Amino acid sequence: MEAAPKPNYIPSLQDLCLPVVIDHIQRDVYSNFPDKLTTKLSDLLFDNLHIPHLAIPEKIMEKIKKHFSISHLTLGQHNYDFFSERQRALQPQMITKLELLSLKNSLITKPNPNGKKKGTCMYYQGAVLYSEFFVGKSLNIVLFLTKNLPPECRQILEALVLQGTSVLFPQGWIRDLHKSFPALKVLDITGCSMANTEFKLLCDTYKNLTHLSIGKTKVNDLTGIEALTELTYLSLEDLEYKKEPNFYSVFLLEKLVVLDISSNTSSASTAKLLTKRKTSLSNLQFLACCGNELTDEIVGVLFQQNPKLQNMAVVSKYILKSADVLS
């Protein structure tokens, strides 16, 4: 059921035309499709034509290969063959943002058409990455990226999202990633395993990051994060810090605006750690702390210590800054 339009809302020309264009592409109505779409239009149409975890229909894929110039690309299960020789786009894709979702480390055998097993491959919930990209049980993600992305993307890729479930990358992968993609400003590795030493290397190499998500990576020492002086967004979802000094480098992030310390448990103590030092996060405006142990006292101190903090996400609701909270 579609959401009711807002009162006095006047739809834009794009709002009116987009559903019609998408429908016509899906039904293959157009006889004279433009040779090459602009990047902005390509991104808009691609986002509306595909669902990351569903296969792209062959006819639509043909249109994408021939006419689209995509800069923002999100792929999930059944869509990794976008990089295959059979599906690879004919137009040069100048990717500046790439999202790879539902990565897994489950090595299985791929059956050939005759029913005989031949070779090994990696299925990411239906998508295939062959064993050439693996070092033992570790996914050589840098090799995968450099082999499948056009060389022109290496200097322009600014946002990389690698989300999975306990995905293993080989030792030193951050160093290799920086050599191949030095321009990253946004990095999300939620659910990918990372050692504290690798995290420290990340902070030493990608000092221009503005957004960083390391949730569910098991990093438990943030020492070195102060090198990320441009960081405005930080996600530490489901991470625990048993030693207080291992967390306190966060207070050195002077430009931090959004901090996510949420947890799937109901007993996380990270919010309490934020109150144990009188140092403030001078630009913090939003704090997500679902699953943390919270009391009225902790909430009050968080608002008092952080002068620009306006709201907090707690479970499924927000706590807004108010006189009652501060009293």
Task: Lay out the secondary structure.
Elements: H1 13-26, H2 39-49, H3 58-67, E1 72-75, E2 97-103, E3 107-111, E4 117-124, E5 127-130, E6 134-135, E7 138-139, H4 141-148, E8 159-164, H5 173-180, E9 186-188, H6 196-205, E10 211-213, E11 233-235, E12 258-260, H7 270-275, E13 286-288, H8 296-305, E14 311-314, E15 317-320, H9 323-326
Parallel strand pairs: 1-2, 2-8, 8-9, 9-10, 10-11, 11-12, 12-13, 13-14
Antiparallel strand pairs: 3-4, 4-5, 6-7, 14-15
Helix pairs in contact: 5-6
GO cellular component, one term: Cul2-RING ubiquitin ligase complex
Question: Can you walk through the features of this model?
Answer:
The protein is of the alpha/beta class. The chain has a domain at 194-327: Ribonuclease Inhibitor (Leucine-rich repeat, LRR (right-handed beta-alpha superhelix), Alpha-Beta Horseshoe), CATH 3.80.10. It has 9 helices and 15 strands. The protein has helices at 13-26, 39-49, 58-67, 141-148, 173-180, 196-205, 270-275, 296-305, 323-326; strands at 72-75, 97-103, 107-111, 117-124, 127-130, 134-135, 138-139, 159-164, 186-188, 211-213, 233-235, 258-260, 286-288, 311-314, 317-320. Strands 1-2-8-9-10-11-12-13-14-15 form a 10-stranded mixed beta sheet. The longest helix is centred in the first third of the chain and has 14 residues, at 13-26. Mean pLDDT is 84; it is low at 107-128.
